[in-house]
Predict the 3D structure of the following.
Amino acid sequence: PVLVVDFGAQYAQLIARRVREANVYSEIVPHTTPPEEILAKDPAAIILSGGPSSVYAEDAPGLDAAVVTSGVPVFGICYGFQAMSQVLGGQVARTGQREYGETRANISSESSTLFADQPGEQVVWMSHGDAVHAAPAGTKVTASTPGAPVAAFEDDERRLYGVQWHPEVLHTTHGQQVLTNFLRRGAGIDPTWTSGNVVDQLVEEIRETVGEDRVICGLSGGVDSSVAAALVQRAVGDQLTCVFVDHGLLREGEAEQVEKDFVAATGVDLVVVDARERFLSALAGVTDPEQKRKIIGREFIRVFEQAARDVVRAHGGADAEASGDHPVKWLVQGTLYPDVVESGGGAGTANIKSHHNVGGLPDDLQFKLIEPLRTLFKDEVRQVGIELGVPEAIVWRQPFPGPGLGIRIVGEVTADRLAILRRADAIAREELTRAGLDRDIWQCPVVLLADVRSVGVQGDGRTYGHPIVLRPVSSEDAMTADWTRVPYEILARISSRITNEVEDVNRVVLDVTSKPPGTIEWE
Ligand code: XMP
């Protein structure tokens, strides 16, 4: 792999993604990883990330010279560039003057590995206080900016490179090209990380891990569980049983997408549990959002647990079930790489870890956990899904909360209200898709204010109906969000269609609150 050494900025994941966009596999390691451990991974190249620290700071994260001088190609970015310069005997000066945001860099592209065939002036994105004033001996300076006399250096002999700016951010116009040049020309790495290869490799790993055992997987209708299931199906075929709990809180067409389209496209063996009545009764009379979440979560686990026991029994594990020695050994989990990195799980660990009590499953029903997506970023999961023939409607589905429409009815959840909301939501989604806005909008909750009524007039009569709220938001990660400026004509069409076509709804309102202070969902 290409190892991205994380010096504690938020950029390491972005760098790792950009490397993969160049079709090269990458993993993130914390800067505290001992150099022997880094080199033991036999990296094809090492990238040193930026970081919030000054190389002069008391607690500045250290860079061991062994990492830079081992002969492995190295690319330093921002803090990593400075730390690398220092280790190689260059001079880093405390300027005390920050260069921040868009800057113009002067490039000498002639006989440059990083900048070959690129313009002599480029827009780059900077964020630094210190700067390299004298490049390490043996390196060639190929860029400068007003605040950084040495803004890039290259050493083809030792295969050491670096830039002061952030090539991984999109504001840096030639960033991806510079990274790609380092990987291809500097480090001589072949671009073999393609979705076809990724599928082959993961399928191989799953086969090795699972052997002859049986596997169970819970499908939610979302991207991650669907792609994980499709991968395992590709690897071990009918050894996999998928369980889909229909809690009746999905949107129009979503249950059918799983039960029909997904099964037809992937050939998975699917058990559908129709638990719609059960969820409705459990939710009867409940209006508190947290209470709803708890009930939905609890019921889900109970239903899934029963289904899992049935699958175990169906495969002859009745006697062995309680001892944990049943033939269904593995439970598929759709964990992604960012979760692995953020939970400190460390990159590059085995694809699989064992677990005894997953997601509330009881101790006596033991499974080992298989996480086939744990090396992938979300965009890669989508590509793998496409490669495996998972329907596009699932692959490109926007985020949707586990408790589903249950937390989009403000008030008690009833079958009638679900029917109203499902219709209104389908219309909104249809029009947003038709307008080509799906990729601009992170998600658009459609909310029914079930306990609010307002007066309206339709035809010759007075109405007394419910409002529907449209909540289109733009976001990178759902932590913060802004309301999406959907064109008025589209809003007008959605509004008139919903009020005309959905009974009991006589008003459509737009939520113009950012997050914070509002959350994305209303409950
Ligand atoms: P909020 O409303 O907190 O939502 O701004 C942030 C993101 O999380 C989703 N969300 C949930 N997802 N279970 C989930 O699986 C939940 O209980 C839940 N609540 C919110 C929400 O759709 C948004 O993408």
Summary: The radius of gyration is 27 Å. Residues 293, 399, 401-403, 443, 478, 515, 519-521 surround xanthosine-5'-monophosphate (CB under 6 Å).
